[in-house]
Amino acid sequence: MRGKELKSAENTDAVHVWLVLWKAYRAVFEAANASIKHLYLGDSDFRVLEVLLHKGPLPVNTIGPKVELTPGSISVAVDRLEDRGLVTRKPCATDRRVHIVHLTTEGESVIKKAFAHHQREMEHLISDLPIQERATLIALLKKLGKSVDSRLQSCRKGKHLD
Asked: How is domain 40-126 classified at the CATH fold level?
């Protein structure tokens, strides 16, 4: 009987955990992208506008790391959003070499609408998970992320990943 129980148990090998996590991420990512496309916003534009909505005006070089864009990519994204009239760049009052990116009135309107739609779509996507399961998932993902980050930091300092 015990052998049958083991065969029916979920595969918990690390590679299988990674595969399940990757497939879940891809599915959610694709759904998230689909939820904002009707407003003619690409993923990077949405991320830039969203960070400005929630963090306020920011220097160009600060936005990139927050939305996981390289310095070249963030410049192109800000240029594109500026051309669309959704953001403006203004010189920093204390350092004229730095430009601060601000949402325009139209940009704020677009991202508020897009974010509200995105929020509803994400809520619908995970509606099968009760609040307690969501909390457990969040806690486990944070634990995994912190553990992996810690191991990577150790590896960068010359220690081995074990």
From this structure: Arc Repressor Mutant, subunit A (1.10.10)
